[in-house]
Amino acid sequence: MTIDVDERTLVLGIETSCDETAAALVMGGNDIVSSVVSSQVEIHADFGGVVPEIASRAHLEQLNPVIARAIVEAGVDESRIDAVACTTGPGLIGALLVGVSAAKALALAWDVPFVGVNHLEAHLYSAFLEDPTLEFPLMVLLVSGGHTMLVEMRDHGDYALVGRTIDDAAGEAFDKVARFLDLGYPGGPAIDRAALDGDPEAIRFPRALSDDPDNVDFSFSGLKTAVVNYVRKHPDAATADIAASFQAAVVDVLVTKARTAARRVGATGIVLGGGVAANSLLREEMLGACAADGIRGFLPSRAFCTDNAAMIASAGWHRLRSDGPTPLDTGAFPNLPLVS
Ligand code: KG4
Ligand code: ZN
Question: Residue 169: CB within 6 Å of ligand 1?
Fold first, then answer.
C-alpha cells in the first residue's frame, strides 16, 4: 500500500514501550493535533521501578481509552487518519507487543499503512515537533532511563552514534541515587527538587572518563558508588547537598561531552532529548554552553522530553515518507539499536 505523504498527512502515533501509554495525532510530521499520555508512575512507585508484567497489563487496559481520547480531542473522524505509527522497539517486550498489536489491528481495520518506529529515533524527532527549522548537522544528547548517547543527526534518517554510556544510563543513575537517599520514585524529578535547597559544590563527586578531553563516552556506575560511600562515611550530611552535588557531577559531564562532540562534527546546535532532558540544571547549563560556543541550544518542552506519542507520529511520518509502510508481519524488538 503506498500513499502520498505531505503536509496534510495525518498520522496516529502509539507508544507503549515502557511505562507511559500514549496516543497522538500529528499532521505533516510536526503539527500536533492532539497528544494524550497516561502515566503508570503511580502504579510502579510502590516497587521503586517499572515492573514489566504490570506495565503490559496496564497498557492493555489503558490503550484503547487513550487512543479514543486522542481522536476525540483532535475533533476529527477516524476516517481522516492516513497512517498508524507505533514504537516497535527498543523497550519491554510485553509492553511493546500491546501497542504493536493494536496499531496493526487499527491499520488493517481502517485500511491505512502501518509504520514501525524506533523509540530512540522518535526521541530525536521531539525537537522538530516544536522547531521544524532546526538545521543539520545537529548533536543530540539523548538521556533517558534506559539510554545515554550522543547522536550526530546528519539528515532525516541519517545518524551516527558518537558517544554512549559504558554502564548505567543517566536516568538510571538518578533513579538509583534517589532510591538510596530515600527520595522516592521516579528519582530524576525528586533529585531535581531536592537539589534546589542544596549546595552543588558541597561535595566534589568524580567526573568519570574526563581525563581524556576527546573521550565522549559516559560512565555513571562509579558516581553512584561514590555517593553510597560518601553517605556511609558521612551519615549526617545534608541530603539536599548530596543531591545537588550528584546532579552537578552528572550535568557537568553531560554538558562537557555534548559540547566536545558538537564541536567535533561542526554541529549547528545541540538538542536535548529523553526524560533526563527535563532536568532544570541540565537545561540551564546546556543553554549557557551553546550560547558560549555560538551554536543553537534546543530544549524540547518537558512534556515532549519524556515518553509521548507525538514524537512517534512525527518519526512515523518521516519514515513513511522515506521508506513507505512497514509490513504487517513485522515483530517487536526489545533491543532495537538506533544505528545498526
Ligand atoms: O525518556 P523517559 O521518560 O523514559 C525512558 O527511559 O525511555 O525517561 C525517564 C527517566 C527516568 O530515569 C527519570 O528519573 C528521568 O528520566 N527524569 C529526570 C527528570 N525527569 C525525569 N532526570 C533528571 N531530572 C529530571 N527532572
Ligand atoms: Zn523514552
Answer: no
Give residue 84 CA to ligand 1 midpoint distance, Å: 26
For residue 209, how far is the Cα from the chain centroid? Answer: 23
Q: Which amino acid is at 235?
A: P
Q: Which residue has a Cα nearest atom 14 of ligand 1?
A: 188
Are 6 and 28 within 8 A, CB to CB?
yes
**CA 173 – CA 155 distance, rounded (Å):** 31
Q: How far is the CA of 259 from the centre of ligand 2 (A)?
A: 22
What is the C-alpha separation between 45 and 42, in angstroms, rounded? Answer: 5
pLDDT tens per residue, range 201-248: 999 999 999 889 999 999 999 999 999 999 999 999 999 999 999 999
CA 110–ligand 2 middle distance (angstroms): 28
Strand, coil or helix: what is 285? helix
Residues 99-154 pLDDT 10s: 999 999 999 999 999 999 999 999 999 988 989 899 999 999 999 998 999 999 99
For ligand 1, say whether the CB of 146 is within 6 Å of any of its atoms: yes
